[in-house]
# Entry
Amino acid sequence: MSLLTSLARLRALDEGIAQPIATVRHCHLAARPMVFVPLKLSGEAAAPLAAMLGTDRDRPRLLVVTQPRNRDLRFAWAAELAGVLLPYVEGFLHRTETVERRNADPYERAVDAPQIVVPNQAGVGFVRLLGRSMRFRRADGPWPVPESVPLLGRWLTYFGERAAYPGSSLMPAMTEELGRHWASGQSGLEDANLAALLAWITTGPSDDAEDPLIWPPAGPATDPGFDAEVLAPAMESGSPERVTEALRTQLEPTWGLMWQAIDLLAGLEAGAGVASRWEQDRGSFSGMAAHIAEGAPPQPRRDGAVAAAAKLARMERAQAAYDVQRAYDDPLVMAEYRLTGEAFAGEVVDTDPGNTEGEGRSRKLRPIVVIKTDDPVRLAPGASLGTPQRRGQGAELVSAGDGLVTVKITKGMGRGRTAAPGAVPEIGERVCYTSLTDEFQGSPALPDAEATPWTHGGPPQEYVPDDEDAQEEWS
Amino acid sequence: MTGSPEQVIRNVLADLPRHRGVVVDSPPGAGKSTLVVRAAAHIAATGEPLMIVAQTNEQVDDLVTRICAGHPRLTVGRLSAGGYVPPLRLLELPGVRVGTRVQDLGDPDIVIATADKWAWIGGRVWPWAIVDEAYQMRSDKLLRIAGLFERALFVGDPGQLDPFSIVDGDRWSGLSWDPLQSAVSVLLRHNPDLPVHRLPVSWRLPASAAPVVSRAFYPFTGFRSGTSEGDRRLELATGGMGTPHDRALEEAARSGWALLELPNRHTVRTDGEAVQAVALLAGRLLQRGAVASSEQGERPVTADRVAVGAAHRDQVAAIRAAGVPPEITVDTANRLQGREYDVTIVLHPLSGRRDATAFHLESGRLCVLASRHRHACVVVARAGIADLLDAHPSAEPVQLGVPVKFPDGWEANQSVLDHLSRHRV
Amino acid sequence: MSGLKREGDHAHRLEALRGTTPQQPHDARAIAALAANPGCARRALMDGAGVDKDAAARHLGFPAPFGQSPFAITRGNVFEALVKADGCAELLRMLRELLGLTVAEVAYHDVENVGAHLRHAHTRTLIDRAARDGHDAGTLYDHPLLSLEIAGHTAYLEPDVVAFQLGGRFHIVEIKSFAVIDGQADPSAVAAAARQAAVYVLALRTLLEELGHDPLKVSHDVVLVCPENFANRPVASLVDVRRQLAVLRRQLTRMTSLDRLLEELPEDLTFDLRPDEDGRPTRPVAELGDALRRTTARYAPDCLSTCDMCFFCRDEARQEGASDLLGRQVRDELGGVASVTEALGLADGTRDPAEGQEEIARLLRNAERLRGECLA
# Structure
């Protein structure tokens, strides 16, 4: 968090209403998102209690395990969940586009992808655990489950994993997304409460948001008071209806909040980089579907050495790209870099579009631009720069001081002897330059998993899910 | 495993053919590069090709220069990335060839490159490798290059900063091959029987500093100074004016340490007063014509022999802007790793802070800052760090299966602060 | 001599702070929590005096948001019973694997059988005997009762199990009902367990020392027993608690040096809840609130998960318009500016920076300018 965000929080606290920290939306919002609000049984790792889900805000589905300690009921719940989620997910597989690739075969990419929205980070964690508890199960042998259960487990694992991937919108956690766009007047810890954060954004802070009787927690953990006074007696009564109705009271308020939050985000125009990141999500989603179609085994319990390194490299690249794209897409995000001196903005006061360097054949066009700025520039001469106003362009800082910065354009101004029209900003134009650039080198290859070197434990044993995995107890 | 440094080096060389990997822990200034050069010559003498891995281009160039100076008959190939411009001193060396591909290098005795560059090389296996600064190398980098060699010597300083990532890597914690762990930790977790040697003597740190750094950052292994009290002297040619800055320099010249303490106050990171004090100290040090005498003789402390260190980049920028003589190195702890100066001036990472974060408490950060000097280290800090440490909440999460790292940042900070308080100005 | 006198004063002052409210006994969890916010004078004094913070917060109308679900409690009890069933048969199986216990026979002592009042003495005798004849076969001590001195009071502690292994090492066994899934568990839950186990390690080491044995016979590796994956089947892991031990020692030393805090308090200050015969507090709420406000809290949002007094202190921070509300990081970033209004005044230029505030004022004004420009 930067001082800019801190200032927004101070302002929010003072004015009693959250303050914007983004001018555009940085996440993709699906036309038909699947809102998923799961609850788990307290004290258990991943024993589902209930879930409210659906793509229609007026017609939520409520799935309840009326007796969570009954394994059969839990398997049945998992199958019911699969009955809702799998058709939704698979519904996106039919319409695809062919994508050409350099040095590789073309592949089919879904033109749209599923988006499962959960209330908070804990919700993502629970999805991952649900996935873990289901994906190794089998339709045969002891404790058989419907075939859809292990398949759902693989998908939930995938979505849970992908949620940790910077810039992905396949499984957004609502409080995180809201927090990226608004600064409340409370702490980051308190922002994890969906009702409290939404109150800050819409009407102003309210202690009601922390009262579980008015706003039950958004899950997956339930309110201990509710467990003791309502749920436990309902379960003891042996009436499934009573349990179902009790849980409905805990889920309905959050259901409403989730859609309210979606509307809020939809009110923001999407940033320029959102579509390309969603495209990557679509590609990733199609890759996973192909993986399943090819009959690959379920995801292993934990990453092997090579898989971990590969994933880390992808995540680091995605994080860097996400940071750069958000800054280029949104002046308010760029302002954070301007505050620390890694970017500056101002008005062009002088230009020399025909400036050249070198002689004869090595003579190169290097248009000069002088910018007047109020920003504290902390960039050294020679620093390479990019600019949101001309994305493909590269520039270099020549000198900075006394509110004037001189830069020379080094690439992306056309190949001619003079700069292409519009390539050099005009005097009076407002421009922004930053050392933050989206230039990434590919990462070098990793060995095949079978060739894992001795330093990392040597070739791993190939993972084959066994009966023990499939029969793993659900207490 | 103590003994004379020479004995340790001989043990290391003797272990090389006996094990697939050998690890050498080297505290600051303990002759790591000397060892690498010795080992390189030793392996090259067997006639078998050797690859050397370092972490930065400067480290690579430095090693090339040292190898050629010590062993002019060896041929060295310096592999580099496309945009790299080799320094002139390298091009003048007769046995060195620079190229972007292994094929361009001829068939030298030694091929040397950064870990990043090595990761792009394939199709050949070297019988031997030396991996330098192996504790600062992330294990995923080692994974990319480990297929290039059959056996290797890993050399590094376990007390410096750990490698890091911009993404959260909790998902891999506890795994023996956690990609965010250092190359050495992953290597040793899979090969616990590999010998680990320790260089026992710091040639850089003076007698005034070695025990302090050893106690705070190497509590279990320890090391000693190669020089004794009185072997190193720092003298200021011109007299002082009695200002706190001058007195701090005098204290540092006399004892090897000084703490210039500013009034207790919570400040922004780029605390103007502290930044000014650091810049003033640097300027005064040069003005007063410091002269360093040591086993290497007597020489003036010129600007290139002085460094200023801080925790954050904005602090570095602020110190620069405050008018430090331009020839003086001003940098963050991360970038000062592996460097050596006569005198260092340090802005304490906890100065002016109200709460200590894990970043500030990381023991490696303070270790780097407090162990770059041959003669003296002047620390600038606001009063109140002791209270801040005292009030620090301890709620670090614990991951199952992850060995606890020592020293604890809190304890290390406390230990250094304790020592500095005896040199307060 | 004067030291002795001061110590007496000190204990007397702490008693006066508590008044007629019964002393809140420290259990391992409470002792471990001493390190949660050591900079908070209010908490240090309440803990030092043994004031029941939960009761105080309730009485003030700011009950803490902590509660445990009956499902979680049941689950915890069922799990512990399962681990300890048949003379800790399951536990033994795991210890064999984890600690390389080779002996076939392992004795089991349930210390509870001797009756509550004798448990502590009996634990001493058993531990003494075990430490003396180290050649004995492995033994598990169930329900032992240890003690530790906290700020002049004896706290009694009940570790789940103490295991004594052949080879002369004692291991604290901690049974927790959070799951270990594929080798990993919630890091904050593990940390809490480690802090708690460190209290037992220290207590047992102290006991051995008193008995004239080597305190290091107690291993700093504690055995954490948790359900594995999604089942009830237990799995044991070793957790190194050396860091937690160091923190604990520091905090216990601090507890004995509350003098400085006590000296600053008015003579007649008390946190007494004045309980009636049924234990219900009768002290006027406003009076108690005022008394507490005489001490300085160091509120941070982290308190919301660690301190019973959190809502009271948060409310106070709100009244004061303190930037602490926004979290430690924001507070730190603002340099010395503690109040929200002050920070905003500096940002929009309506307030002139005081001495030493020039830089934060410049930064805030710059941030304000940028926000204004981008949101225009």
